[in-house]
Amino acid sequence: MLLLDVDLDDAQRSKILDDTRALVQAHGTVVSDNEYGRRSMAYEIDHQPDVDYSLLQFQGPPSLLEQLSRTLRITDGVVRFRVIKIRPDAPAAPDLRQSAVPAPEAAEAVAEPAAG
């Protein structure tokens, strides 16, 4: 699970995700890749109430986990990440894109009443 800073521009966010995928594919296998978009966190980290969530499920050797953890720890824009071992019988990742927090501009547009 990757939690990325929402203040990053799309190019930086895409580069972090692409680099992470490339590292996993070089040493392992990607099982699923889900981008959940902007969502609120249960508590703020560094005064940020929202982050951009991505879930990358993969298989690989322990050396991949070490390299991935080191790389993500020093990458600017990564608010938090968590590597979790899942059981083989675990269900597929849910599609949470429908419940993502709208961007502030979209929320303001929805909140304004229509003139009429």
Please render the helix and strand layout as text.
Elements: E1 2-5, H1 10-27, E2 29-45, E3 48-59, H2 62-74, E4 78-81, H3 104-111
Antiparallel strand pairs: 1-3, 1-4, 2-3
Structure description:
- The protein is α+β, with helices and mostly antiparallel strands and 116 residues long.
- The chain has one domain: Alpha-Beta Plaits (2-Layer Sandwich), CATH 3.30.70.
- The chain is 34% helix and 32% strand.
- It has three helices and four strands, in the order E-H-E-E-H-E-H.
- It has a four-stranded antiparallel β-sheet with strand order 2-3-1-4.
- A hairpin with a 2-residue loop joins strand 2 and strand 3.
- The chain is globular.
Short characterization:
This protein has 116 residues and is α+β, with helices and mostly antiparallel strands. The chain contains three helices and four strands.
One letter per element, helices H and strands E, the order comes to EHEEHEH
User: Numbering strands along the chain, what is their spatial order in the largest sheet?
Assistant: 2-3-1-4
Mean pLDDT: 82
CATH superfamily: Ribosomal protein S6/Translation elongation factor EF1B
What is the CATH architecture descriptor? 2-Layer Sandwich
The CATH topology is given as Alpha-Beta Plaits
> What multimeric state do the chains show?
single chain
Count of DSSP helices?
A: 3
What structural class results from the helix and strand content?
alpha+beta
| Termini separation | 45 Å
Strand content: 25-35%
Q: Strand tally, please?
A: 4
The top level CATH class name: Alpha Beta
Stretches with pLDDT under 50, minimum 5 residues: none
**Which sheet architecture does the biggest sheet show?**
4 strands, antiparallel
Number of domains: 1
Cα radius of gyration in angstroms: 16 Å
Helical fraction: 25-40%
